[in-house]
Structures are given as C-alpha cells and as structure tokens.
Amino acid sequence: MRGPSGPDGGRLRRCAALPALLFAAALRAAAATNAPTPLLLDGIAAEVGEARITIAETMLLARELAAARQIPVAEQAAKLRELYAEALESLIDRQLILRAYAALEQKLPAWMVDRRVEAVIEENFGGDRSRLVSTLNRQGMGFDVWRKRLEEEMIIASMRQQFVDQNIAVAPADIRAYYATNAAAFALEGPVRVGMILIGTRDGEGDAARLARARQVRERLLAGQDFRAVAGQESAEAHARNGGDWGYVEPADVFRREIAEALAPLKVGEISPLIETESGIYLVTKLDERADGVLPLEDAWGGVEAHLRRRETARRQAVWLDSLKQATTVRRYPLP
Fold first, then answer.
1. How many Å apart are CA 243 and CA 245, to the nearest integer?
2. Residues 6+ apart with CB under 8 A from 255
C-alpha cells in the first residue's frame, strides 16, 4: 500500500528542518573533520525588516540541504540555485518568526536554553563540551553565538506550537471523504495473502517417500495445526522463515499456473490439494483475501488522519507566515 502523500507541507518542512540542519548535521559533519570551513565571498541575500540574511549563511544551509538529501556531489552544482532559493526562503521564514516573537516582549528562561545546550552536547559530542567548542572554533563561530542560535530555534518551535500546532482536529467526515476520493493511495500489493509450503526432496529420499511426507503434512494442516508453524518446520521454500507467508500478491502474476489455479477456488483458511511439480510438492492456502484490493477504511484511518493533520498544519503555517510577511518589508537580492 502507498501511504497518503501530497505536495503540501514544503514550507513547513523547510522551516522545521532548520534546527537539525544548522545544529545537528552541521556540527556532526564538522566534528568529523579537522578541515576549516571554506570561506565564502559574502553579501546580502535578503533583508527582513532591519535584519539581514547573508549569502554565506544561505549557501551554507543550501549545502546542508544537499547533504541531508544525499544529492551526489556531481549533481549539486546543477541544483545549487534551486537549493539556494529554498534555503533563503527558510531563513526568511525564520527571521519573520523571530520578529513576531520579539513583538510579544517575551523571553525564554536561561535555564531552559542551558538544558537544551547540555542535551545537544550529550547527543552530538558524548557530553564533552570541549569537543563542541573545538568544532565551533573550526567553523569560526563562538560559543555564545552558537548558543544564541540554539535559543532562536527554541523560540521558533515555541511560536509554531502557539500559532500553528494547537487545536488541530480532523473531522471523521474529512477522513472518509479523503479515503473515498483517493482510492489509488490505498491499493494493496495484491488481493490475496498467500501461505505456501514446499516439500522438497531430502537427502536419500525417493519420490514415494517425499509424497508420503507431503500427505502427512497436509493431514496435519487439515487437523487444525497452525499453517505458519508447520511451514516453519517443513517447508523448503525461502518464505519458511516467515511461516510461508508471501504477503498480499496477485497469484496469477507471481506463481506458476498450477499454483495460481489451485489457489483460486480456496476460501480463507482452506488447504489446497498437493501440487506436484518438478521442483517439489506444494501446499498453499489463503491467509487472507480482499477482493477489492483496497485497504479497508478502518485500517487506513490512522494514516489518513495523520496525513490530513500534517496538511492542515502546513496550511496554517503558510497563512501565518503570509500574514507576517504582509506586516514586514522583505527584500530579496539576486545572486551575483
């Protein structure tokens, strides 16, 4: 099954990705090498009110985006302007949120920031503050500057919680409507969940002995023994480790004709007759069957609800950021 997806949430993900990119990925990468951060020719990329965003910090985030997405180095140059534009919008959003916070005349308690600092040091530097300081020195950044940026990330998270994330509820009617209009998103890999046992030839075993053993296995299944347990004990087929479970498949597309034909008339839980082939003797069953090939609504409910919640979060954030932009002068400057 493909989970519900969509184009929504791009700006939300960009803004939410900043803490990890700026403070985790960058620090871990820098900690792994003694090479200094390369110098960039700098200039002004954008102005948000009186705050300035530099080309250097925008380019740094663009490179971190490329690294986080594992874009090959050979392809990064071709995508650099696209990544730069995305990074710049993230940094503009960041400044807009910080300006909105300043207007509230609030301040994070110092102890909260200190606790977060210690958590970052523990998570990324094994609790060794000196390793963090060494990494920052190689990047040409002082500890106080880094701490200030970490504080800003905490502010952004707090503002998102206050103005975006609170009280988001998804109505059951919306879940049903999305499910009804996006059936393709819930298509199963195949309508039948197949269980299979292969009775192969053991060393020194003749055809008659193998056939007798296959009949005994079938009798055990007809007597009510668990198919998965018997498959794990007796099957010579690769799925034996999973109890002979092939998952949901379309039998005609996956199995040889005689196996697919043996499966067709079975009801769930019924055991096929012995299917003799040159590669061995097969027994198959239907562990489950969904004739329409679509995940039922009750099984899809949680995934749809989460998807719609993310979409509503992205919509709210877009509206919120647009309102902040309308109240602030934002100037963007093209790259040289």
1. 5
2. 194, 249, 263
In this prediction, residue 189 carries a pLDDT of 63
Place of tokens 């960058």: 26
The 3-state DSSP class for residue 21 equals helix
C-beta of residue 271 within 8 angstroms of C-beta of residue 222: yes
* Sheet of strand 192-199: strand arrangement: 245-249, 192-199, 280-289, 275-277
**3-class SS at 263?**
helix
Question: What domains can be seen in the chain, in order of their start residue?
Answer: 10-172+300-332 (1.10.4030.10), 188-289 (3.10.50.40)
210 contacts 202 by C-beta, under 8 angstroms: yes
Q: What are the 10-residue block averages of pLDDT along the chain, 336 residues in total?
A: 43 39 44 45 87 92 87 85 93 95 90 94 92 88 91 93 90 95 80 93 88 96 96 94 92 92 94 93 93 82 95 94 94 87
Q: What is the CA radius of gyration of the chain?
A: 30
Residue 185's pLDDT is what? 85
Distance CA(188)–CA(303), nearest Å, equals 14
Is the backbone of residue 52 left (phi > 0), alpha (psi -120 to 50) or beta? Answer: beta
Determine the Cα–Cα distance for residues 298 and 290; give it in Å rounded to an integer: 14
Is the separation of the CB atoms in 275 and 198 below 8 Å?
A: no
DSSP 195-230: EEEEEPPPTT--HHHHHHHHHHHHHHHHTT--HHHH
In the block, residue with structure tokens 């803490």: 19
Q: How far is it between the farthest Cα atoms of the chain?
A: 89
283 is written with which tokens? Answer: 């027994």
* Distance linking the first and last C-alpha atoms of the chain: 47
17 contacts 89 by C-beta, under 8 angstroms? no
